[in-house]
Design brief:
The chain has a single domain, classed as 2-Layer Sandwich (BirA Bifunctional Protein, domain 2), CATH 3.30.930. The protein has five helices and eleven strands. The strands form two sheets. An eight-stranded mixed beta sheet has the order 7-8-9-10-6-2-1-11, with helices on both faces. Helix 1 packs across helix 4 and helix 2 packs across helix 3. The radius of gyration is 17 Å and the shape is globular.
Length: 241
């Protein structure tokens, strides 16, 4: 078993959410699993996206640009997770695709605990795939998690200085920007982020061999998050690509 810290931050601002993930990537004092939600609802652009690639982006209350690539995510009716650790520490001790497979296997186990028959997409087509929306949940790969014939989990990584940030979105309900994707509600499951959190943590513990110990950001990590987070919602940062 590998000892990891557990941080939960419910209803945090978009700048704090992104600032803390970056702070944990840059100077995290120990391997950390984090569970969080957003207030208000926020659209996060992938690092390489342009704002004009996401029609309707102005319907989200706030907008940020993530450190990770991929498509845009409308963070509403979801549980967001992040893992930050040194590269070389399981599950990040193999190839990048292997790390996705391991983390996604843990999420699939957690989804099964609430009655969702989820699995990796593999070669199956998904009804949620759509052209020219710029949205993460409208584009899928074989390693994405799906149920009911649609994508329901999106995740991405950023590696820097021998460390990795892996964060993602697990959809409990859909949004006006995402439409008919896989959600808990579409599968007739009424579960809140706080209720699903323990299932996800058990999946991480059992599938990844983690021993999770509740904690909080250190003063240095929090100060770094506040300093870094301030730029995430600035117009120049969001529109920089």
């Amino acid at each position: 078993m590998s000892a990891w810290r557990l941080i939960t931050t419910w209803g945090a601002s978009p700048e704090f959410n992104m600032g803390l993930d970056e702070a944990l990537l840059l100077q995290g004092e120990q391997p950390t699993v984090r569970l969080y939600t957003w207030a208000p609802d926020t659209l996060s652009l992938g690092w390489f996206q342009r704002l004009d690639e996401v029609p309707g982006a102005d319907r989200a209350s706030r907008r940020v640009r993530r450190l990770t690539g991929g498509g845009a995510i409308h963070h509403q009716h979801e549980l967001t997770f992040s893992l930050t650790a040194p590269v070389g520490l399981a599950p990040y001790d193999g190839t990048v695709p292997e790390s996705y497979e391991r983390v996604h296997a843990a999420i699939v186990k957690a989804l099964a605990a609430v009655g969702l028959d989820a699995r990796l997409r593999g070669d199956d087509p998904l009804t949620s795939d759509a052209e020219a929306t710029g949205m993460c949940f409208h584009h899928s790969t074989p390693l994405d998690i799906a149920w009911g014939g649609a994508k329901g989990v999106g995740s991405a990584q950023r590696r820097r200085g021998g460390r990795v940030l892996h964060h993602g979105s697990i959809k409990l309900g859909t949004t006006s920007l995402e439409g008919p994707i896989a959600t808990f509600e579409a599968a007739s499951q009424q579960v809140t982020p706080v209720e699903f959190g323990p299932h996800l943590l058990r999946g991480f513990e059992q599938e990844l061999g983690l021993e999770l110990r509740p904690g909080v950001p250190s003063p240095a990590e929090r100060a770094c998050a506040e300093q870094l987070g301030a730029r995430y919602t600035t117009e120049s940062w969001v529109a920089q690509r």
